[in-house]
Write a structure and sequence with these properties.
By secondary structure, the chain is α/β, with parallel strands linked by helices. The protein is 36% helix and 21% strand. A hairpin with a 5-residue loop joins strand 4 and strand 5. Helix 3 crosses helix 4. It starts with a helix and ends in a 6-residue tail after the last helix.
């Protein structure tokens, strides 16, 4: 009788272990493939800047050319500078999302987004003296007001890519080039302020904030 009872207890324990393992397998994170998140290049304009041919500027270029290692500060083409900022931001967001366990991939410039997955988009913005929001323009130096970036995260299968912003006009005012825009309140997820004089650090810090907000959005948590 004792042997029979022991066999029953062992059999019940084995069945319970199998059932538990089955439930764990069904609810494991790998049971349902996580969506792929595509990071697109954010919108950032570049403006053609007329070279400064003033006497002090020419003197600095001459002194720089005589230095053993070349000019102290290299003059950078606005288009190249803008592309560097855009690429750095997208690369860093993709990297931070990957470190957070998200299947994140860069979406090549000009490439159409897939039919499924999520897409992260954004636009760099400036605020002029009249408190109007404009698309940011690289190439006019400092003094352009507060630089921001507005971000959208969309489910490609259900939402597609609705416009993130709409241009109000394409005129410029004073030292604030770029079109005046209004953000689509139904699309824009959050806005971030790019603060600091160290460009690389500012981009890295902002990208980390954006990646954290994207992760919250994927989990269905409201953005802070």
């Amino acid at each position: 009788m004792k042997n029979l009872l022991w066999r029953c207890l062992v059999a019940a324990a084995c069945l319970g272990a199998v059932a538990t393992a089955s439930v764990a397998a069904d609810t494991s994170p790998g049971a349902t493939p996580a969506p792929v998140v595509y990071v697109a290049d954010f919108d950032l304009d570049a403006a053609a800047v007329k070279p400064d041919d003033s006497r002090p500027k020419r003197a600095r270029r001459l002194i720089g050319s005589l230095m053993p290692n070349g000019p102290i500060v290299a003059e950078q083409d606005p288009q190249v500078h803008a592309q560097k900022i855009v690429s750095s931001m997208a690369d860093k967001i993709t990297s931070d999302l990957t470190h957070a366990g998200v299947d994140a991939r860069r979406l090549p410039a000009g490439a159409p987004a897939p039919a499924t997955g999520w897409v992260v988009r954004g636009v760099f913005l400036s605020v002029d003296e009249g408190n109007r929001i404009r698309r940011a323009v690289v190439g006019f130096g400092a003094g352009q007001g507060s630089l921001q970036v507005a971000v959208a995260v969309n489910d490609l299968a259900t939402q597609g890519q609705p416009p993130l912003y709409q241009e109000v006009d394409s005129g410029s005012s004073g030292h604030m080039p770029g079109a005046v825009v209004t953000l689509n309140p139904y699309v824009a997820l959050a806005k971030f302020v790019l603060a600091g004089h160290d460009e690389a650090k500012t981009i890295n810090d902002t990208a980390k904030e954006i990646a954290g907000t994207v992760v919250q959005r994927l989990r269905g948590t409201p953005a802070q």
